[in-house]
Amino acid sequence: MASVNELGRSTSPYLRQHAENPVAWREWSDKAFQEARERDVPVFLSVGYSACHWCHVMAHESFEDEATAAYLNEHFVSIKVDREERPDVDAIYMAATVAMIGQGGWPMSVFLTPDAEPFFCGTYFPNDPRGGMASFRQVLESLADAWQTKRDQIDGIGRRVVKQLGAQQQPVPGEFDTAKAAQLLRTDFDPVDAGFGRAPKFPPSMVLDFLLRHHRRTGSADALAMVAQTCDRMARGGMYDQLAGGFARYSVDGQWVVPHFEKMLYDNALLLDVYTQWWTVGGDPLARRVAEETAEFLLTELRTPDGGFASALDADTEGEEGKYYVWTPAQLRDELGDDAGWVIDVCDVTGTFEHGSSVLQLRADPDDPERWQRIRATLRHARSHRTYPGRDDKVVAAWNGLAITALTRAGIVLDKPEYVEAAEHAARLVRNVHLDHDTGRLHRTSRDGVRGTAHGVLEDYTAYAQGCLTLLGATGNIEWFETAERLLDRTLEQFVADGSYFDTAADAEELVWRPQDPTDNASPSGVSLAAEAFTTLASLTGSVRYETAAQQALQASATIADRAPRFAGRALAVAETIAAGPLEIAIAGDSPELRRTALTEAPWGTAIVAGGPGLAVPLMAGRDLVDGRAAAYVCQKFTCRLPIVLPEDLRRELKPQA
Hints:
Number of strands: 20
Distance between the termini: 74 Å
CATH class of the largest domain: Mainly Alpha
Helix content: 40-55%
Strand order of the largest sheet: 1-3-2-4-5
Strand content: 5-15%
Shape: globular
Number of domains: 4
CATH topology of the largest domain: Glycosyltransferase
Number of helices: 25
Largest sheet: 5 strands, mixed
Structural class: alpha+beta
CATH architecture of the largest domain: Alpha/alpha barrel
C-alpha cells in the first residue's frame, strides 16, 4: 500500500496546498488508476480549487486528520484534482454528481471504479454526522464495505452512469431569437434589486453584454435599463471592493450586500468588459470609474511577475471568510477619528456580519468626493497591514484571454495605454510558455513561467485567440493575427467532429466520455467563445470556412438560449452581432484617434484591424492612406464605404440609425 503524498511536485497551487496532508494523494493520471487496479480498491476523487471556502473546511476537518487519512490510504487510491487546471475532468464528474444527487458544488467528492466510472457522488462531507448528513468517515466505511460485498452492483452503477450521461450530452441545434431572449430575461429580472433570479446572485456579465449589444442594434430602452440597474447595484453593493476595486464571486443575498469573498480572474475580466461597454453606450461616470478601478485591480492584485494574470484570490484569511475586507465601527473610529461617523453613514456600516463587522457599500456617490478619496487611501493603507488573502497564481490560458480582450478594449476606449501594454505582456507569456510551437498544442496553465502538464481545452484556444485578434486592432502587430489563425485552425482540426464541437482535443487524454457543454455559466463556454473568435476571424479574412465554423459553434447553444437565456449570454451576444451583420473596420496608418473612435463607437463584436497599408491581413488589402493621412474603412462582408480621415466623421458613420 502506497502512503506517500505526491502533490509536492505539482504546478497547481491548490494541489500544493494539500502536499502536507497525511492522505496519500495522487494527481490525475493513468498511473493512479493502475494502482487502484493492482490493489483492487476504489478511487476517491476530490475536486476543488484554491479559493473554495468549503474545500478548505473539508481539508482541515478530514484530509488533515491522521485517522481519516489512514483509512483512506488503506481502502482507496485518493486523487486530488484542481478543477481550474482540469475542467474536462471536473465537467464529467460534476455531470455525474448532479445526475446522482440532484445538485453539485465544490468540494466535489466522487468514488470511482479503477476504470474511472463513478458509482457514488457527493460534495462536502462533515467530519462528524450533523444536519442529517453522514460523516465522511461513515461514507468511507460504507463504501469500503460495499466494494467487498456488493461489487457487481457497484460495477453496474458505474457502467450505466457512463453510458447514460455520455449519450445525453450532445447539444441539440436550433435557431436564435434574440428578441425572445431579451423578453424572457425581462421576466426573470428583479425590478427592485436588479440582477436575474433569486439569491444567491451571480454577476450576469455575459447576459449584460448581450443586452448592451441588443440595445445597440434595436434601440431597446428596456434592455439598457436592465443593464444600468444591475451594473449600478453591483458596483454600489458589498460584492464590489469599494477601496481597491474588483468584484467578489457572487452575492449570498438578493440585494448585493453579502459577498462570497473569493475574487476570480474570469469574473473581473468579463465585468471590466461590461462596464467599459456600458460607458461607451451611455457615458455614465460610474461605468468609467468602475472600469478603471477593475482594470487597476487586475494590474495591481492579479498580475504575476512574469506578466500573466493569476487565477484567484481566496475568500478566507486566518481561517475566516472575508476578514481582510470587513470593518467594525470601532475599527473605523480607530483609523479615521472624526471622519468615522461620516464613513459609517456613507458606507452603510451596520455591523451585520460576524463580530459586528460590515462590508463597505456606496449606495450613492459621496457629497464630498475629495474627502472620500482621502479616506479610501487611509483605509487601503490600514488594510495593507492585515493578512492578505491567499492568491492562486497559476496562469490559465482561457482566463488570460478574457483579460487580454477586456484590457485591450478598455485601454483604447479609456485612453489608458498601460492597459494595452499589460494585455500584450500577458499575450506574450501565453504564446511563449503555453504554446508548444512544434506541435501547435496550447497548454492550459503555467506557474512562475513553467508550463503545466494539462492540455488546453476548447475555451483556452478560443478565448486566447479572441484576445490576440483584439490586440491586432489596437497594435497592428501581425504576430497576433498569425497566432490566432494558427490556433483556430488547430481548433477545427482537433475539437470538431461531424460539425459538432467538443471541449477536449482529439489527441488529448481519453476520458470515460468526451465532454461538450455549451452552457455559458460562470465563464463563457468553449463553443460560445469559438463562435465569437471564428466570427471575428471570418470578418478579417472573408473566409467562408471560418464563417461556417462560427455558425456551427453558435448552433450548439440555440436550444439553451431559447429556453434559459441566462445560461447562453455569450452565445446570444455573438448571435446579436451576427444579426446586425458583423461590421469590419480597417484603419490604414497610425491614428490613435481613429482607433479610439472605432472601438468606442462601433458595437462590441466589430472586427477591427489597424496598421500600415501593407499589413498582411486580408481586410487591409487595398486600404490605403488618403492624401498621406490615416483613413478608416467601414465595411460589411468586405464591401467598404468611402474612407474616413476625421474621427468626428467616423463617429457619425458608426452612430446607430434611428
